[in-house]
Amino acid sequence: MFGLSVFTVIFVATQMLAIGRLVSEEHAPLVAAVEYFLWQMPAVLVLCIPMSMLLGTLLSMQRLSGESEITAMKAGGISLTRIVTPLLIVGFVVSLVALFLQEVLVPVANARADYIKTAVIEHLNPALGNLSVVTPLPDGGRQITVADALDPATQSLLGVVVIVKNREGDAQSVLVAKRAHYDAPTWTFRDATTHTFNPDGMSFAPTMTVDIGENPSQIARHTASDPDQLSRADIRGAINSGQLSPQQVRTYTATYAAKLARPFVAFVFTLVAVSFGLRPARGGGTGLGFGLAVAIVFSYYVISIVFLSIGELSTWLAGIAAWTPNAIFTLIGLFLLRRASTE
Question: DSSP readout, 187-248?
Answer without folding.
Answer: EEEEEEEEEESSTT-EEEEEEEEE--S--HHHHHHTT-S-GGGS-HHHHHHHHHTT-S-HHH
